[in-house]
Recover the amino acids of this structure.
């Protein structure tokens, strides 16, 4: 039996929101050349000490903070599909960002439509594997942050919508995005393309507002969208 050091934290929403607002811009462009989504873990990782969810990074087990408990994302059939690259003209520094095909195609259509209206849409993150999310944690913990501190503004591995290949972060991927014309355009037209704000200003579960993070979750068909924007 191994004994794992455990970091147990409880963060109030107020502290969570304040820190989210104060934290400097964090950019997590995925420079990996990965083009196939990794299979997602279907089961919660076992924690022998309590019923709390945990995640293991480099053989060390960490308790998921309360604000993320019960939010682990399950496997989606879509996640096994090959990923496709977003046209670099819509990516920060012309980087390589991948999404699932329908999300990429629709994002591209949306960005091109916005461009015609004088709105320059740029993203700095798309698909991120669980492994890559762990790498982000490792990097920040190597700099002296605790797991709990990182979890205040970065979804734990297994909890990020980015692993679904459907979510993007617009630039600037921080609080200042609310003042960006792209945000206003998205509020007006994003849902027409099936893109929705995952963590809006007002939510039923009091999640911190994350204006630059949007997910492709269409409720109307791409054909209807095409008709509307003809
Ligand atoms: Zn995001």
């Amino acid at each position: 039996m191994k004994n794992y050091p455990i970091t147990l934290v409880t963060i109030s929403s107020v502290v969570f929101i304040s820190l989210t607002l104060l934290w400097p811009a964090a950019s997590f462009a995925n420079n990996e050349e990965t083009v196939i989504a990794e299979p997602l873990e279907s089961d919660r990782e076992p924690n022998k000490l309590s019923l709390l969810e945990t995640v293991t990074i480099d053989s060390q087990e960490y308790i998921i903070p309360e604000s993320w408990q019960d939010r682990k994302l399950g496997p989606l059939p879509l996640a096994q599909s090959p990923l496709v690259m977003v046209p670099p003209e819509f990516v920060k520094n012309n980087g390589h960002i991948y999404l699932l095909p329908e999300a990429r195609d629709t994002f591209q259509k949306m960005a091109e439509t916005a461009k015609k209206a004088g709105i320059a849409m740029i993203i700095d993150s798309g698909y991120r594997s669980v492994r890559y999310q762990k790498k982000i944690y490792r990097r920040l913990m190597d700099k002296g942050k605790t797991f709990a501190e990182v979890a205040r503004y970065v979804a734990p591995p297994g909890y990020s919508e980015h692993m679904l290949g459907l979510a993007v972060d617009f630039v600037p991927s921080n609080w200042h995005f609310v003042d960006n014309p792209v945000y206003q355009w998205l509020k007006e037209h994003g849902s027409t393309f099936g893109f929705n704000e995952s963590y809006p200003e007002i939510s039923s579960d009091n999640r911190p507002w994350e204006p630059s993070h949007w997910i492709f979750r269409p409720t109307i068909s791409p054909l209807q969208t095409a008709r509307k924007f003809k």
